[in-house]
């Protein structure tokens, strides 16, 4: 009798296992070197390598799509199998996603032309200026919610050009460790920091339909990466990225 019951339970368990395989995740990100970028046919970068390692350790199949930020973010909101990185975790976004991380840190910086002088000691001092933002991202939402005069761009790297053309006064940029994008684009010494107005952490943000068990597994994998030095090794792998790419 006991053998019969055990066999029945095993049969049910096997049926559940076949019926509910771990989903293949659709991961989206934006071009934001050296954190996410395309090299040949492959998406790479610090954030991408962190996410890839999380997926491998967690035993989760995945694909990565490089998109404009608004499309990348919207996909994670709407698709039940989707996650987006590197996403700033804000109170407004908290309930919209399940969170894995943090996978990185950044500073929000008001950038201006080096040949202009700004009397900006606090964020409120910048209310008199036109601030260039990236349409739909956390900095844009943060400044809009506080009543700033923002001028959004569909691509964040349009903003240095807008600065040089006097179409905006300041640019609300997100600056992360090792980023030499402005140098590579020829703006070194021309666009400079005016004020650091926030320090944030970024995450892999998953649709609310992604199972809790997978989210816990991914966070566990990331914690193990922090303990064994893998996360630090990924960051240092890109120490020479800006020099090599000039």
From TrEMBL:
Keyword Transmembrane found: no
Residue span, Solute-binding protein family 3/N-terminal domain: 28-238
UniProt-listed Gene3D superfamilies: Periplasmic binding protein-like II
Alphabetically ordered keywords of this record: Signal
InterPro entries noted in UniProt: Solute-binding_3/MltF_N
Superkingdom field: Bacteria
Residues making up the signal peptide according to the UniProt record: 1-19
Protein's name according to its UniProt entry: Transporter substrate-binding domain-containing protein
